[in-house]
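Retro notes, item 3 of 5
We never archived the inputs for the zinc ion complex last cycle. Fixing that now. Sequence and ligand:
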Amino acid sequence: MADRLSQGYGSLDAYEETKKSVAFPGTSEHATGLALDITSAQYVELNEKQADTEEAKWLAANSWKYGFVLRYPPEKADVTGIIYEPWHYRYVGQEAAKEMTEKNITLEEYNGRLKGDKNELE
Ligand SMILES: [Zn+2]
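Structure as it came back at the time:
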């Protein structure tokens, strides 16, 4: 946030931009124990280039079989409120992971379906 303030962002804009990539203290999904960050052994940087590693490609294609989903996909930032994080996986169970992967939906969209609120899927 300090970097953005120094770039001329106003306080509210700096806050809004920063929270897309840094969880407010105490609100990270990691605190649930259900999320983890997985990187290539050869490339450990947490940035979009992680997606080009063999490990990330394998995870993206196969994690659902083990009950994990890529939590913040590139085309869903407007749904999740979080930028693309090719390293961040979340355990949701095999049944949910299979359905979310087949339908290309996020946890927010999946939970909206469970509540029966179809509007949340649009
Ligand atoms: Zn993470």
